[in-house]
Amino acid sequence: MGSNFVLHDEELHPNVQHFEVEQPLTGLKQDKQRLQRLHRPTVDVFAGEDKEIVSFEGFTSPWYKQLLFLVLGVCTFGVLFLVAKWSLRVRTALRLSRCPLKQAKFVRVTLLDGRVSLHDVEVLQPSPAASHPYLSPQQHPDLLVEAGFPLQQRLLEYRCGRYFYVESADKFLPVPDVPKAFNTQLQASATRMAVSKDPRVLEEHDWQLGDRQQHYGSNEMAIPVKSVAALIADEMWHPFYVFQYFSIIIWVAGDQYYTYAVCILVITWFSIITSAVETHQNMKRLADIAHFSCMVEVLRGGSFKLMPSQTLVPGDIIAVVPGTLPADCVLLNGECIVDENMLTGESVPVRKVPYNPSVEGSGYCPDKHSSCTLYGGTQVAQARAPGTSYSGLGLSPSASTGGCALAMVARTRFYSAKGQLLRSILYPRDGSESFISDSLKFIGVMLVACIGIFIWAAVVLASIGAEPTRIVVRFFDMITIAVPPALPACLTIATVFSIGRLRKIGIYVTGPHTITLAGQLDVVCFDKTGTLTVQGLELQSIVPVNNGRFEPPSTDMQLLPPDVPQLLASCHGLALLGDTLVGDPLDQKLFAASGWSLVDKEDGQYSPAAAATAHAPQQLAVVHPPGRPAAAVAVVRRFEFSSQLQRNLVVVQLGVAGTGAAAGPTGGSGSPAAAATANLLDSHMSGPLVSLAAPAPAAQSLAAAVPGATHVLYAKGSPEMIKSLVAASSLPPDFDRLLAEYTREGLRVLALARGVVVPGSLPDGALSSYSQQQLEAAVQLELTGLAVLANPLRPDTAGAIQALQKAQIRTAMVTGDHVRTAVSVAHQCNILPEGRPVLLMDAAPPGQPVDACPVSLSVLYPDGSVNASVTRTAVLPQVMMGELECAVTGKGFDALLAPPYDAELLQPMLRRGTVFARMSPDNKRDLMELLGSGLQTAAAPGCPKLGLHVGFCGDGANDCGALKAAHVGVSLCEAEASVAAPMTSRQQSITSMISVVAEGRCALLATYQIFQFIVGYAMAQAFATNLMYTHGLQMGNYQYLIQDLFYITILAALMGYTKPRKELARAKPVGRVLSLPLILSLLLQIAVVIVFQLIALRAMRRIPWYKSTIGTPDLRTYKAPETTVIYLINLAQFIILGVVFNKGYPHRQPLWTNVGMLVAMILQVMFLIYSLFSVDAFTTKVQTMVGRGPPDGLPTAFRAGLLLIMVVNAAVALLAELGSTYGLRLIDRAKSSGWLQRRRSTTDPVLRQGLLHPMHIGMPLPKHSPANGLHVPSLQPPSGAALL
């Protein structure tokens, strides 16, 4: 129906495409019937409920509440405005009223973790002709309502997603990533494309286009970036900064502290501006990565039109040309070479093939069917469809070059793969740490304590005649001292320094919140190939099979059967990009080993089967032996490798003779492509190979056994999968034994198979139309051999794994390789201990009773033998006690996650599983969620979770889901701007994870120590101030200035500069501020501070001429012996706190390695000694200190004694810190060895069942069970004191 409507580009709306009806419909009844026939329930258009959202609540904004709020705000001098800005609950209560969702102008969204936000509702008033062009805007609008079509829709944009109100469900439902009808449209389009080469048959009805334009909106990932001025306006009203303004007003109005107030104001605004500029730059950088627009050739109205990419919606047909893709698309014809480095971190270009329903199945998913999906944001290096020509359809010459590759848009804007990764960065999962809330709680407690002390001081002030207003001003002044205004700025310093240090070693952080999370990691999972091992594989040998028997392994193609090099040369997904061979590295290695050449289809056509016919498919690739183009064969059907099927399959046409094509620039043996193949061969083969110029066996010898055979099937894949497909007679009797030997050595094994198509055995057109499973069932496959490849460990892998394990971090391998290969590599890199049996969990065989165990259990022993006759009751307790290790296959993992969940099996897998093999990308993501906060898509309740902090380290596109699901994802890639993970490392080594953990622990501990230091300083100064109030005194303006700026600010800023230790400590830092070690340490130091302030004042009374000073009622007496002593002792105590709270061990380097802080402390000590013993204009006039002589001076002897008090203060503070640390450790040891632990072990059901404390999961196990020599883990929880 596309020809009935005319598109008006000048009326293009960002969200809605307008159409105009050329021929109005006649007959009211006919119109009504047509609309009812088209109508689908609105709820069917949208996805199910968002699992992360608890509720939507509707609100309106009555005018009287707005007026009342304005009046109250003015009456409270703006205080109410600030409170409403800080508190959504207050703002909602004062300004809004509840209402039904269908009438709401605002919606309050509540998430599972308790976070709440308020958002506007947009009411869309679409033109009826836009969504349903059977009616013009003036024609029968009541018919739309009667047929069930809403005349207006309510839109909520939340976290870059679109939610529409559905009246039948009375809730907002999200727009699905891919439209629900998309699969039907895609399969129909693919079928039409196979029958008719005319792309106009692919165009959908205009009414569907209009619906999708309204639901999905503009295809533009626009991240709003506030200007620096707007960010400053937001930042300046943060509660901490407002508190600073309040403090400045108190200082100026109460004591005329102009100098100090100006300094604090300058520092405050410097912090505000710096924060705003940094935020603006970060958001702009992210917005630049997200935003992209271009002109696209779109099929609209029967021809291709050049349109902005913002107008694309799912279902659009576009011409694919080299350049950046504007959306996720499904390739319908042709092939593309795509660079996905920016999105996935994968540096090798990948080849994309057209969507085939018989291959991909009926349920298309962009994340699962990556071989035919072009992802938005990636670079198309080459796009072509040989043999196609769409003249007269308006295509530009550039799109027509080499034939036009067509694709259907699947996902747009933030629903695309790139958009989802950006959303995970913009809206990170809320971490379980509660540092800010704990800090505020503790500060609140300290503030209450200070108020209690001030009550005592206020009574004394009232007794000496101080005015009530003056007492109130002093009260507010004391609050500004007890709650340090610089606290929030100081707490971010350590994270900023850590990010800077990581950047210097090539690790780039896009999610700063992950730094402190990295310091709390409990488990780190690694991909194997390219992460634990080196990039690429080395072919060790080919083990051929002849008449069901293995022959000696070889890498000499002349010594192998003729079908082996032909299989290696044709069973792949490689393509030529200019003179470069691109595709999977494994395919490249095997193709290079064959010695054959790949011919570019564009260089010439082979005959007689160059063109596709009704019974013979078109050639996809042509390969020939070196120097023999006449012996070429053509790949006419290709089924790409998938992790679900664990194999790939090709249909090869034999007897393809050609002329001239092999002599082209990429065709012959002397071509650049052949030279590149030779170089690749020389660099990656480990055994002797035939020269590329050596003669090869004739390809036609394959069909000699079957007269008249013209086609053959080649397959390669996992041994267990190929074993299930080939004829039993072709399987050698020692197949399993030989496979076990190779996998036990850590070698990767691929099985090779072939099947000759017997003439007349298949119906006409079967080679073109049959699915992969149908071809494998119709053509008997036979095992041809085994390809044995080595993927050696990186030199530093084993050491890095050992370092993480020593740091009490569980390590696990998550790979797509065979389970025996994965177990062997895990042994080599220390993930699995040597000499310990491994429990293998695999899917139960088919036909097993429903109530039976969902997985098959077997034990793999160190000598390679397997015991399959084990029971769950016998082995599961051994797994939980550490007597058996645990390895799980992908199929076993799926079986365990099938409801109803078997917790008895899931718990050992999650708590003790070390090797996860044959895992798909979805399996990897689900594992990260199970180890962490639980499955995000769990369909049934009861699925367990561990609640651990999980890290993942990977290097390829298959790891993107796991990198995003983990708390800390580190992608090993060369792209600095990759959005594949919160952290990207250009170091191709897992030692990057050690650096991340070290910096995370260092930043976390530094943040805690800075918090302790700031709170300790505040309490020291607050108590000193209250002591002075009891004498009617107050410290001078410059005394406060020197203390706060030249002591506290410098020390707090430089504390975070200490680097992490080179080796990871056994215990990680504590997880919360309100933990016993931190709180006990802080309280002891506060007690020491108070005691020595009182001791200093007590010692001052021994001066012969000393008389207690009583200040004036207005508290403007600054120069007195009491203020001098307290000022000096405070300076010393600040330095002492800086030393005590700047412990390096165990996560940070020693204090003396922080040169800046060491120099600052030396200068501060020198200034303290100068101020203590010198009497000059600076000390008496600027610092308002007393002299040496009577009647109010401090003699030199007393000053020397005061220095001794400071030294003793330092010694006692250090002893108190050591006492708190080692005291808690001794108490913990006593508990762990005493009756309390024994009693707990008999009453705690978790410990009785052998479910270990989460901190012990995967930890190195102490010595052992004397009965069998196996290690048994201790069940005691880790020491709280040891965490310091």
TrEMBL record:
Transmembrane spans: 67-88, 236-253, 259-277, 442-466, 478-499, 1002-1020, 1040-1058, 1070-1096, 1124-1142, 1154-1173, 1193-1216
Record keywords, A-Z: ATP-binding, Magnesium, Membrane, Metal-binding, Nucleotide-binding, Phosphoprotein, Translocase, Transmembrane, Transmembrane helix
Recorded GO CC terms: membrane
Keyword Disulfide bond set for record: no
SUPFAM superfamilies associated with the record: Calcium ATPase, transduction domain A, Calcium ATPase, transmembrane domain M, HAD-like, Metal cation-transporting ATPase, ATP-binding domain N
Chief location: membrane
Cellular location(s): Membrane
InterPro entries: ATPase_P-typ_cyto_dom_N (IPR023299), ATPase_P-typ_P_site (IPR018303), ATPase_P-typ_TM_dom_sf (IPR023298), ATPase_P-typ_transduc_dom_A_sf (IPR008250), ATPase_P-type_domA (IPR059000), HAD-like_sf (IPR036412), HAD_sf (IPR023214), P-type_TPase_V (IPR006544)
Signal peptide region: none
EC number per UniProt: 7.2.2.-
Residue span(s) of domain P-type ATPase A: 295-385
GO molecular function list: ATP binding; ATPase-coupled monoatomic cation transmembrane transporter activity; metal ion binding; P-type transmembrane transporter activity
Start and end residues of each P5B-type ATPase N-terminal domain: 51-165
Domain of life of the native organism: Eukaryota
Lipid bilayer topology: Multi-pass membrane protein
Catalyzed chemical reaction(s): ATP + H2O = ADP + phosphate + H(+)
Protein name in UniProt: Cation-transporting ATPase
Organism: Tetradesmus obliquus
Lineage, uppermost ranks: Eukaryota, Viridiplantae, Chlorophyta, core chlorophytes, Chlorophyceae
